[in-house]
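Our platform keeps sequence and structure together, in a single record for each protein. This encoding replaces a full spatial description with a residue-level series of whole-number codes. We quote a single record here, exactly as it is kept in our systems:
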Amino acid sequence: MKSGLGVVGALILLAGAIFAGQGLGFIPGSYMTGDMKWFWIGSGMIVVGLALGALALLRPARQG
């Protein structure tokens, strides 16, 4: 569970970084390019991804 949460957090972080890059116009070739709405959506995803990653790192492993 702990590693799965970290993987999900990393994937959300990566997708958010791509969305933010497209929103700022750094990654061309999409309808999202240059639209600041996607920068803010990506920024929110980055925060969620970081929070999930931190939760996965700080959560104690289950004894089972």
